[in-house]
Amino acid sequence: MRNTLAIARRELGSYFNSPIAYIVVAVFLFLDSALYFSTLFQAGQADLRELFAGFWPTLLVAIFAPAITMRLIAEERQSGTLELLITMPVSDWEVVLGKFLGAIALFGVAVALMVVYGIVVAFLGPLDKGPALGGYIGLLLMGGAFIAVGLMASSWTRSQIVAFIVAVLLCLGLWLIGKIVPFFPRPLQPLIEFLGIDSHVANTARGVIDTRDVIYYGSLIGGCLLLAQQSLESRKWR
Amino acid sequence: MSQTMIKVDELTKDYGVHRAVDHVSFEMRAGEVLGFLGPNGAGKTTTMRILTCFLAPTSGRAQVAGFDVSDQSLEVRQKIGYLPEDTPLYRDMLVYNYLDFVAEIRSLPKEKRRAKIKDVAGLCAIADHLGRPIAELSKGYRQRVGLAQAMLHDPEILILDEPTSGLDPNQIVEIRSLIKEIGKQKTVILSTHILPEVQATCSRVIIIAGGKLVADGTPEELQARERGNRYSIIIEGAPAEAVRQKIGAISGVARCEARPGGNGATELIVDASGSEDLRRPLFRAAVDNGWTMLELARKSASLEDVFRKLTTEDAAAPAAAAAAGKGN
After folding, report:
1. ipTM score of complex
2. Which of A163, A198, B121, B284 is placed for a possible disulfide with A154 were both Cys, Cβ 3.0 to 4.6 Å?
3. What mean pLDDT comes out for the span B120-145?
């Protein structure tokens, strides 16, 4: 556990050692809020849903998450530091989990900064606190899922660009599945809807965090981290 | 007094169809500084990666400090300090922060880390650079940070993969003396393809070529094994041809070449037929004939000769086989 936290802290520190973290977080916050506030005034309702869920936030996170995860393992493979890291007395799990937590922490920083938007909106009109809180948690869960996908992609290659593109494609895939539910035969539709991330994002944005959503996010994150760990371990059976 | 620190038994590693390490066995005792010698691609790095639990062997076993690299990988990794080839470090970190991170991963208690980092930094002569980003350091200083990183937890065994590659001659000398210093207390394996390095730092040498172990011994033993029994002498006071004939007649001399040197002296190269020492008979011959002997030296094969002989013989065979395979 201590190793995991040490790795997570190092990852978070290394994000802030480079300008990339600042740029990515700033761009994300700017685009998300610009797209949100432009619709807020049209709708004239103090509702944060479009800040966390819906079309734009999901699309933005599907690109933002791979941008922060692409370096996690690919860069270490490329530079050779991975060899040094995993020949220290740490398990492959601790490496994967530490990196995951480091990226989540950076995403958490971005989400924490979005609390400012909530406060601004609360001044503009009566804010329903339940859905707002659910929205923040839901955003973290969606981010966690996409970060796990990105970490997995990063473990497959030594090229950050490849890791980024693969992760974006997978994240967009999860997002698109939810969009094309009506094209599937009726009996399959609930399954497809469950597989897509859209329905879960919509649930949490309503302030409802259902067991189905927890299972969905939990198994998606767990599955991706397991595959990332397997990919690290594969050096031993190749 | 010294227990076995590393035991490698019939170690084999295949990458697909390519056999990188081929049934290598050796043992190492505590306190030895072992030079792992071989041409590029001989299997040095692969062997080290197996010892550090980065790769798993295809077959065979390896034990480090009594722990098996496959079954007790965590214990093995606690016992060793490792510096991979090309010194991969987190360049965006400050030297101190990096060493602190390694110390934490190495389970050093928080209150002891600072003192320990200072200690090791002093030993590796990087105490003045702890506040600098690793990216700004020269290759020599990065190498020192790499060594410091490997020694933070006082490992019993240090595994250094080409610790001096890419350094300038001054840095090489410094890193070598540092390794020698470390080698007084610890068991060290270092790989290299630079021969003077082995002579300067190692108490024992293992030569591998084409994945196979071809020699194992002290640098002196290896040189002695390949020693041509050859003498070079310079004689004054007689015509070259007369000297050549007299020397050639000494029993035990297989061959004698003479050529005129400067100032009427004669330079001779004498090859012995056996292994007995010919310095005395040669000297006596000079005295008996009233010559003046200006120089008498016994030539030994350099480690370089040994290395070239062993590695080209063994490397040539698989290469020839591969070429034949392609022809079919």
Report:
1. 0.89
2. A163
3. 91
